[in-house]
Amino acid sequence: MRPYLDTIFGNPSSAHWYGRQTKKAVDGARGQVAGLLKCDPDEIVFTSGGSESNNYAIIGIARARKKKGDHIITSVTEHPAVLKVCDYLEREGFAVTRLPVDHEGVVSVDDVRAAVTPKTVLITIMHANNEVGTIQTIEEIAAITRPRGILLHTDAAQSVAKIPPSVDDVGVDLLSLAGHKFYATKGIGALYVRRGTPIKPLLVGAGHESGLRPGTENVPAIAGLGEAA
Question: Model's pTM, two decimal places?
Fold first, then answer.
């Protein structure tokens, strides 16, 4: 991170030498994170952390697919960065089903299947629980969502770099990660968005991060995230 703090301090969107060097750093880190998740670099969007990634995934998908349906499925043991976002969307008129878990914190795949309606547009179930460590059977949930055209998001903040998920093996359309969970700094994260997934940005401004997250990139933290990955 250090060169991008005190020597190579350009804006990655600028055409001058300093800008070109920092753009290389951002592009390199995007490739490193993509390598960790086994996806393409253009499917990685840098954020300020796991909470922002969850907000982008859930709100961005809900608003983008509202004409198709207004139903979201989640579980009662999600992180507040998921549960409170779902509460927020309920106030916007969305319907949210919060599934129970068993004595080990596992969401029943049968419960997921039974909760699906023709208006279900998104299911968001965490990969590994931040309190008790339960690992959900995301692959089995993906087998439900994929044939039905329902998008699947997982909060993988606690699992990335511990049990690194390949996004294709897990079968998700969106995945959130937080850098400080695997030795990057606090205040940096990323969102995997499968190519072709409809999603609306939460912020408006310039066209950074493929138009999904405007604002000058935090180059030192992004470089650190890439190195940690």
Answer: 0.96
> Is residue 118 within 8 Å of residue 68, measured between CB atoms?
no
In single-letter form, the type of residue at position 176 comes to: S
CA distances in angstroms from 96 to 14, 101, 120, 123, listed in the order given: 43, 16, 9, 10
Q: What is the pLDDT of residue 207?
A: 86
- 191 neighbors 161 (Cβ within 8 angstroms): no
Amino acid type, 93? G
Query: Residue 74 pairs with which residues in a beta bridge?
Result: 98
Range 138-143, long-range pairs (CB < 8 A, 24+ positions): 138/165, 138/170, 138/171, 138/172, 139/169, 139/170, 139/171, 140/109, 141/107, 141/109, 141/112, 141/171, 142/170, 142/171, 142/172, 143/171
Residue 159's φ and ψ, nearest 5 degrees, are -110, -30
Distance of alpha carbon 45 from alpha carbon 113, whole angstroms: 30
**Count of CB atoms situated within 10 Å of the CB of 176:** 32
d(CA 74, CA 122): 9
State pLDDT tens for residues 56-70: 999 999 999 999 999
